[in-house]
Amino acid sequence: MENEIVNRVVKSSIVTLDLEEFYVPGERVFFDLKPLLFQELILKEKDFRAALKSTNWSEYKDKHVAIGCTADAIVPTWAYMLISIHLQPYAKTLFFGTLTELEKQLFRNSISAINWQNFFQAKVVVKGCSKVEVPTEIYVEVANRLKYVAASIMYGEACSTVPLFRSPKTDSSLEG
C-alpha cells in the first residue's frame, strides 16, 4: 500500500464556504416607472394612478422586483411607495434600486442567517468558482465577518487557495 494516493484536502480540517449556496432562486425583474410618466418626464397623479389600476400586477407573482425609474425625472417618493403597495401581494421581494443592487441585497439577506460562530478558529476557504455570479461586495462582507472568528481565511478551491488572513493567535511565527 506504499503507492496509495491520499487525498489530503479531504482529510484536512479546512472548511469550505460556498457562497453559491446562498443564492436566492427566482426571477429578477425591474419595474421601471418611466413608461408611466407623461412624455416619460412628468408624473401626473391622476394619469399615474389610472396606469397603476390598469397594470396586470399578477405578472410579478413570486418574482424579485427592483423598482426604479430610468428617466431623468423628478419622481415623488410617494409614487414608489404606491407601486410597492400594488406589488406587495404578488412579489416575493420588493427593493428600490437597480437589478444589480437587488441581487446584492438578496445575498446580504441570505448570508445574514449564517451563524459566524460556526467558523470559530476554523481554516476557511471561501469558494471562488460558482455557477451563479456572486457579487464582489458579498465576498468582501464575508471576509470582514470571518476575520473576527476564523483562524485563517483563504480564497479559491481547497486544492488551490490564495491566503488572505491568518489570525495572530494561530500564526506560529508570532509564537515565542
Give the CA-CA distance, first to last residue.
Answer: 40 Å
Main sheet makeup: 4 strands, mixed
Share of helical residues = 25-40%
Point out poorly predicted stretches: 6-11
Count of domains: 2
Query: Which shape, going by the Cα principal axes?
Result: elongated
In N-to-C order, the SSE pattern is HEEHEHEHEHEE
Q: Quick check: average pLDDT?
A: 90
SS-based class:
alpha/beta
Q: How many distinct helices?
A: 5
Provide a descriptive summary of the structure in words:
The chain has 176 residues and is α/β, with parallel strands linked by helices. The chain folds into 2 domains: 8-24 and 110-174, no CATH class; 28-91, no CATH class. The protein is built from 5 helices and 7 strands. The protein has helices spanning 8-11, 45-53, 77-87, 99-111, 136-146; strands at residues 14-17, 28-32, 64-68, 93-96, 123-127, 152-157, 160-166. The protein has a 4-stranded mixed beta sheet with strand order 1-5-6-7, with helices on one face. Strand 5 (123-127), helix 5 (136-146) and strand 6 (152-157) form a beta-alpha-beta unit. It is elongated, with a radius of gyration of 23 Å.
Short characterization:
With 176 residues, the chain is an alpha/beta fold. The chain has helices spanning 8-11, 45-53, 77-87, 99-111, 136-146; strands at 14-17, 28-32, 64-68, 93-96, 123-127, 152-157, 160-166. It has two domains: 8-24 and 110-174, no CATH class; 28-91, no CATH class.
